[in-house]
Amino acid sequence: MSTVTVALAGIHGHGRSHLSRLLRASESQDSPVSLVGVCDRVPPHAPLSTPRGAVAYDSELEALLERTGADIVLIATPIHTHLPLTRVALAHGCHLLLEKPPTGSFAEFEELRAAVRERGAACQIGFQSLGSTAIPVMRGLVANGEIGEVRAVSGQGTWVRTSRYFERADWAGRRRLDGHDVVDGVLTNPFAHAVATALAVAGAGEAPASGIELELFRAHDIESDDTSCLRLRTAAGVPVTVAGTLCAAADTSPEVTVHGSAGTLTLAYKRDTLTLRRPGREPVTTEYHSVDLLENLTAHLRSGEPLLCPPDSVTGFMSVLDAVRRAPEPRPVPLAHQRVLSQEGGIRRIVTGVDTTVAESARRGALFSEVGAPWATRRVLPHPDGAEGSALAEYNDGGGVDTRLSPRPYLHPVRTRGGVVVSEQLPEDHPHHLGVGLAIASVSEVNFWGGRTFVRDRGPMLLADHGRQDHLAWLREEDTVLAQELSWLSPGGRELLREERGWVAHDVEPTAWALELVTRLRNTSGEELVIGSPATKGRPGAGYGGFFWRAPISTRAPRCFGPGIVGEGALHGSTAGWLAMASACGRWTLCFHQPGPKRDPWFLRATEYPGVGTALAWEHPLRLAAGGELRRDLLVLVCDGAPDTDTLSGLVERLTPQGSEALTVGS
């Protein structure tokens, strides 16, 4: 292959920079690249040409490729068009350079990868920062022990963007557009390079990420986030934290830093500089260069040069994007914590102290709420012994949850004392699974579980029957206790139940703590309520509804065991004294225990997805008379590592329920 011909899809917006570069590259007869066609719904202002001839234009990519027979299609169109245009290009035998992010969801990303593999095409994803020649040097220095043992990886960036930035395209500042995911958030677009590069240098770019913690905020009047941070842990247990804002007091060059026990390595990826800092020595900064991704793709096609950014290399990033996509709506930054300036370039918003907050988040590997940002505070359960570190559990009011998911309060993330996240919210497999809380599939035909409703003889159906749990008042907010009053409302706003719920953190030992969930539900509807489940409507084994804990999904199913019982099948539906779920990697274990003489059957899923709950209506409906009360208590040991059966049995015996006292004090 002597000259590689290129068709560009998208010539406006960010596509303009690609167009200029391709026109320059096509000027020389010796260039290995030749622009032969462009595609956009809006035609170029004037006909395009190069010394090699006219550049074809068409509003449809398929027609353009039939005319030009291009070897490569460079796609720089809005994110929700990437997958369909990729399919068109592949159908014409083309190779691909696809702007970042490649797709708007992880499911679409998997479709894209499968399509590329099936066609045997070369595909490069446009994370230009991953073309930096500093990255392999950085990895080599880390591998050689130049900064000691790797303790953390961080990314950070502060930019100034006005309201005009979000007016540049119809998808800008949006989470969804015309029913399509676009996920235009600060971590998934402007600082997507920081996320992808941090994961790459942490050795986590090619694996799906789990246990992702997010704090998403918006100061501008937009749908998506403009000030956010994330934290996750790699398979090796290394924490990766990235923080960024578009509401800064000053622009700074984004950086990715590897923190070691004997120094740091910082990559300023926009400048391609790498700085080595070690105690007692002067910092050493070295300049590198970036390999153009189109040139690399061309070299791959001509001589077999390895691709710098194939789809598999951004799997970790796409896990982050999908977590942002599924997360509740970003929290607005109160006006009291903003400076609002009217400028020629639009409305500028500066979030109070955000420049320092972003820097501290990266330096400490902490979330915004953990570094004390006044606009990022949230209710939490702290370490019961007063130890420092991330909160053990964070409270979410469920206010931003879609109506079809049955909005309700829940805890997420819940962490071990070592900081490992052991809960999940809004997962792709069951978006209505919300961390740790109380959810019931049917209360007199009102769905307080979320998602589809099981209808006898018809199966699961999406109905307009979703209720919600509204917070009314805090009964206690002190030390390690959160107690609240809730109203369970039908779709029409009628109250069916009034609840008092307590969340209590218990100190157990240095590697374990216990979360207690206690509820007192009172029927306020004025008539008998019938609590049911899919099992009571003809689906055996699906008696879910009660306390429910959704754990993080992994590539391998967790181990499940109890006192003298092993396996999902044996524990599901049992009333074992306790039930343990342990991650396959051995990093965390959850042990569930219902104190008291009466136990509801356990609802357990491990192979399909990791989740544990109690079943109020396992086989038969539970009837609650008008004015009647239902009380339940659950204790969950949250452990680092993989304690054995004897250890867990001993810890369970030491647990003393306190939830009822928490509610009594607040009543």
Automatic annotation (TrEMBL):
Residues 6-127 form the Gfo/Idh/MocA-like oxidoreductase N-terminal domain. Keywords: Oxidoreductase. It comes from the Bacteria. Residues 138-265 form the GFO/IDH/MocA-like oxidoreductase domain. Pfam families: DUF6807, GFO_IDH_MocA, GFO_IDH_MocA_C3. One of its GO terms (molecular function) is oxidoreductase activity. This is Dehydrogenase. It comes from Halostreptopolyspora alba.
